[in-house]
Amino acid sequence: MTHPTQSAARAAAQGLGLALRAPGLLLSVLAVTVIGAAPFVMAVEGPVMDSLAVQPPVSSLAPSEVDPEWWQEFQRHASGLAATFAPMILGFAAPLESVSALLDGTRRPLAMMAPVAVSALLWAFLWGGVLHRFFSGAGSPRAFMAAGARHFRGMLAITAMAAAVSVGLYLTVHAWLFGVVYDSIASRVPSERDAFLARVILYLVFGALLVTSNAVFSFARIQVVSGQRHVLFAVAAAWALVRRELSSVLALYVIFLVIFGAAMTAYGAAELLGGARIGGWRAVAIGQAFVLFRLFLRLAFSAAQVNFATSVAPLPPAPDHASTPPA
Amino acid sequence: MPHRHFARALARLLVTALLGGAVAAQTAAPAVTVESTSPAAVLRLAETAARALTELVEWLGPLPVQSITVVDLPWAASTPGKASPGTVATRFRWITPVRDLSAERSLIAELARQFWIAPVTDATAPFHEALVIYTATRAIHRVLEGRHFAAPRYVGGFVSMPVRSLMLSHNPAGRGAPLGEFDEVLHPGDAAWRFASAADGSPARRASVALRTLERMIGWPAMQQALAAVRERAAGSPISPEFFAAVVAEQRGVPLQWFVRDLVRSRDRIDYAVGTVTSSGSNGAIRTAIGIERLGAGVFSGTDRPRDDEPARTIPVMVRFADGSETRAFIDGRDQRSDILIESGSPAATVAVDPDEMVLVDANRMNNGWVADAPSDPVGRRLIASWMVWLQHVILTCTALA
Q1: Measuring CA to CA, which residue among A211, A18, A287, A157 is closest to residue B383?
Q2: Residue A219 falls within a domain, yes or no?
Q3: I need a labelling partner for A7 at 20 to 30 A (CA). Which of A64, A86, A293, B239 fits?
Q4: Whether B333 contacts B300, CB under 8 Å
């Protein structure tokens, strides 16, 4: 019998290898991510450029620096998406803020619903193509598009269910853990370090719930691609798989979270130590490269999950419907 | 715990001997003692306290105390900010990178408060708080100039990540009072230890911005002399805005009733905006008509002369033309609408009301400008690209949950 860690590690290694051998897929997914963000960038660009155009120039600023007084004034009066134009967008703060918001359940401005909804729709399409690629090995763009279109409805339904469960968890469990429970602990511990430790433990507790939910819906997507037409049956089958192989599934998540954590640490350390050398446009390029890395990890993780699912419970081969018109 | 007491005692001894004593000998600033269990906190807070006190004493005159004790509050103690004569409480967070000077900013704010501690009445409390906010903000800009950065906190507020490209006090030459405000000075706005609320829209906040506006008009040397004179003459009694204005008027020989009436006492919103800009004509003879509007009921008079006299040239309007040339006109801030007509060789490209950012009491400066065609600013392009990267990160994180 294979040890859970071994099967997870093997699946992770295979997933990373498959993602490495699919640079075209990675670049396509990056292109879709950028194109999905572009309309919202244009919406923010106008107010920012108009505001800067009438701003008196500050000669004492280095080329990589921003006038904080202009920024403070802009933030005070910005609304909608432009209100998110804060220092957190610069360099390593960008991924740190997004991870921090995930951990703390930070509420985003209502205007952020639009880009997130558009991206959810795009990913509902991408998931079909991506998982089909890793499941069947068919790497042609035509097969990708056909699979994306064919599974779009199923993926969208799973995305909606996953979103509902996540929101439910944040509104109930997260609110309780980081409200009553954390406040009670933090007021009793003697030092800030102990309070942080308590918070980390609560992050782990809540993270375990999020991971379980994510695992169920991720494996449900694989079930759909493998031929399961009914979404609820796919979710039920995924739930059974996660329950049966819980330790291996968790090990798989831990492996990828460790990789992501290591990359985040390296990025943060580089920014702290690199100083002005990684400011300006270089910081933007590094930030975009890190987005690419996150997409790579997402693809690799999906490939690993497909490998894992097929290794523990062989699924029927996906019929290649590339030649049939999308449903 | 014994080792903590020992560390506190040792820190006290070292700092008093090395920093406090030396500072006291050279200036009239009080000696500084720091109580903290963290050696890093002791050094940083002591150095900042000594520098800030030297600066503040030079600006405002001596303090009535011989020594100041800085207490680094333990975890779970009430929020820092409270100041009593000779004692200030601050908090040095566990994870505080060297570029995160928020503890220092908090400390300077509390030291500035020491200079205005006095019995206040309901009528004078907001102006007292305004004096604290104004001097604290100015002292932070001065003491930490060129070395403190925005440092947002993440992960439950435990992890600080200074943003190196966002230096908070960069000393732009010739611009007078810096615009930047600090959370460490303003929050919590409704704390019981304040003379009056410093929440958004409070009389104290308005008066503090009025003081900065006045500094932009009369310059820092005149403002500093006025502050020192006000403090000396008040001698620990409540300071009203009328008293402050009378001292400044006496020093400058110009009445300042408008300052108290329009900027401090009035609650009306002051907001100037570029209304309409039209350029007509051709062949190098272009007529540009500009309409400047006063949107709020509030007024920036800038003078005590009656409006029936000749219009006061109180607020400048800068017009930049397409050929790169530039001209300035002036409007009377009391007028509901001011029309400016300019003849030039090319059409207007940019119009800005109060381009030097003097009227800081203007509630919305984002409508102070007009651009025919916003040029693609290089800093703007980079910020937009950064925002796009941030948006992708948010999208990736959100779609990971769904």
Answers
A1: A287
A2: yes
A3: A293
A4: yes
pLDDT in tens, A226-248: 988 899 999 999 999 999 999 99
Pick the most confident of A129-143, B44-58, B141-155.
Answer: B44-58
User: Whole-angstrom Cα distance, residue A320 to residue B249?
Assistant: 87
Helices (H), B115-194: 125-143, 183-186
Q: Of the candidates B164, B391, B401, which has its C-beta nearest A162's C-beta?
A: B401
The residue range of the domain holding A258 is 4-29+89-162+201-312
**CATH 1.10.390.10 assigned to B2-265:** yes
- pTM of the model as a whole: 0.85
Contact A279 B165 (CB under 8 A): yes
Contact A65 B170 (CB under 8 A): yes
Whole-number CA gyration radius for chain B: 24
**Is the CB of B386 less than 8 angstroms away from the CB of A90?**
yes
ipTM score of the complex?
A: 0.93
E-assigned strand segments in chain A: none
Confidence of residue A87 (pLDDT cuts 50, 70, 90): confident
Structural tokens at position A159: 């995305």
Dihedral pair phi/psi, residue B167, rounded to 5°: -75, 135
CA Rg, chain A, in Å? 22
10 Å Cβ neighbour count for A100? 22
Q: Is the CB of residue A82 less than 8 Å away from at least one CB of chain B? A: no
Please answer yes or no on whether A162 and B402 come within 8 Å at the CB atom: yes
How far is B111 from B135, CA to CA, in rounded Å? 10
User: pLDDT tens-digit profile of A245-275?
Assistant: 999 999 999 999 999 999 999 999 888 887 7
- Residue B30 CA to residue B200 CA, distance in Å, equals 33
Q: Report CA-CA distances (Å) from B100 to A92, A170, B130, B149, B159.
A: 15, 31, 26, 7, 11
Contact residues, B window 65-124, toward A, CB-based 8 Å cutoff:
74-76, 93-95, 97
Number of domains making up chain A: 1
Fold category of B272-371 in CATH = Immunoglobulin-like (2.60.40)
Q: Angle at the Cα of A119 (from A118 to A122), degrees rounded to 5?
A: 90
